[in-house]
Amino acid sequence: MTKHIFVTGGVVSSLGKGLTSAALGLILERRGHRVSMQKLDPYINVDPGTMSPFQHGEVYVLDDGAETDLDLGHYERFTHARLTRDANFTTGKIYSEVIQKERRGDYLGATVQVIPHITDAIKDAIEAGVTSDEGGDDVDVAITEIGGTIGDIESLPFVEAIRQFALDRPPEDCMFVHITLLPYLRASGEMKTKPTQQSVGKLREIGIQPHVLVCRTEKPMTEEMAKKISLFCNVRREAVIEERDVDFSIYEVPTDLVAAGLDKIICRHLRLEDERETDLTDWREMLERIKAIDTTVEIAVVGKYIELHDAYKSIYESLDHAGIASDVDVKLRKIKAEDLLDEGVELLRGVHGVLVPGGFGERGMEGKIEAVRWARENGVPFFGICLGLQCAVVEYARNVVGLDGAHSIEHSPHTPHPVIHLMAAQEGVRNKGGTMRLGAYACRVKPGTLAHRLYGKDDISERHRHRYEYNNEYREALVSGGLIASGVNPDLDLVEIVELPSHPFFVGVQFHPEFKSQPLHPHPVFRGFVAAAKALAGKKPERVPEEARA
Asked: Would you give the DSSP letter of residue 398?
């Protein structure tokens, strides 16, 4: 029978529950166990697909087209768990299903209430989240992260549901891991345990006694403090785990948790085989490789949502993965696309690569197009993702092929040259949520192209999230002008990859490769992009300040 670990968070949000959950999944996999991962979010949106990146960070897309929370990106980067749309449930999704059942008469006239009907639906969702390539029966441990903070009104049904879920099973089949904060007061020079005590108190009021406390802290936790937390929170001393801010990489978290003995604590409680050691050999080798890096490349990311780091979380992580493979530290120069129009391309001066990510709406479009032009004309490696590809096509059509006024009809409905147009399947679609071209689609890569050299094969599958597409009516003109269509969907003949053979590295992709990159297995296009940036950095002399030249 599958064992279950429930991860909750207290005191404040953004403690890194998703990262810690992913690290637990990696640790258990490295002990030979098969895991599944799941996130339960308390907000009322059915999914994050219609939410602003400023509100919730990036929307992470799965192979089956589910638009999910960004924490699922951590799960896939750290583990081999098979994630489907059942890996992310929200309050909105749960209530929608319950209301549909009520309308069908499934409750046979009963008064539908939070307990038991909503909590039963949440428990069913937890069971549905236990998935693997073989169907789910072979999953050893299912890890479920509860979004929000203990004490929030909206998360109460989820917390009550996991209490009931554990009550229905033997004690050794469920485990509660609570992540909390030990705030450091600089004025007094001390850390405080009271917020942790109160957070655990809230859990215990509901009926949940955590088995492990993972204490986030920026300073070392003393033995005296750990004993105090153990006493007042009713958690064994060895299960009070320090999770200090990492020194140089988030990928240190699994090794830190193993060093604290959390792997053995979990295995003992869940009665899993615990004779073997957690094998993190290649992971530690990767960390040593990161520590040894002494070369830096600077990549400009020109986007709309640049103020919020989580808006492009997977892109930044994928750049790091590629940096590890090329033995370089990737330094980000985050540039608001609108600023390029106001302040000029001087903002790009000195970078070794330009990346234009996806986005929606007209704001910043012309700034992105200017960034593409600058990279193309100056021989600087360029990588466009989703809208980034579309900007590259518009820029090339205008400035090289000579199609004056070329644009995307998303932003300019009356353009004389709609080189980017609405996909046929999207015509007549009115609802915004869950209606884009979503999920994994096939792409056939043209032999002899840069894309083919990067992937090393003819057929690939990548994840998509878009409504607008390269207009095939202009393909002949663009290809004749030098912009090659090097990847095409074989079923619909949609252009998926464009590249410029005359340029050191100029690639645009309609899909989102950042959703398929891992630290030990960087995505091939990101890897090629960073390698090209490193090659340029090796040729470029460092900029000399004006005063040094005098």
From this structure: I
Question: Tokens for 242?
Answer: 């320090």
Active site residues: 386, 512, 514
Say if residues 36 and 30 touch (Cβ distance below 8 Å).
no
Residue 117's closest CA among 145, 155, 157? 157
Q: What percentage of residues in the chain have a pLDDT greater than 90?
A: 83
State the Cα–Cα distance between residues 41 and 18, nearest whole angstrom.
12
Contact 58, 17 (CB under 8 A): no
| φ, ψ dihedrals at 241, nearest 5° | -105, 130
Distances (CA, A) of 109 to 24, 84, 101, 170: 43, 33, 11, 33
Q: How many residues does the chain have?
A: 550
Return the amino acid letter for 216. Answer: R
- What pLDDT does residue 21 have? 97
Q: Is the pTM of the predicted complex or chain greater than 0.85?
A: yes
CA distance 315 to 321: 10
User: Do the beta carbons of residue 400 and residue 369 sit within 8 Å?
Assistant: no
Q: What is the DSSP string of 444-456?
A: EEPTTSHHHHHH-
- Position 436 pLDDT exceeds 90: no
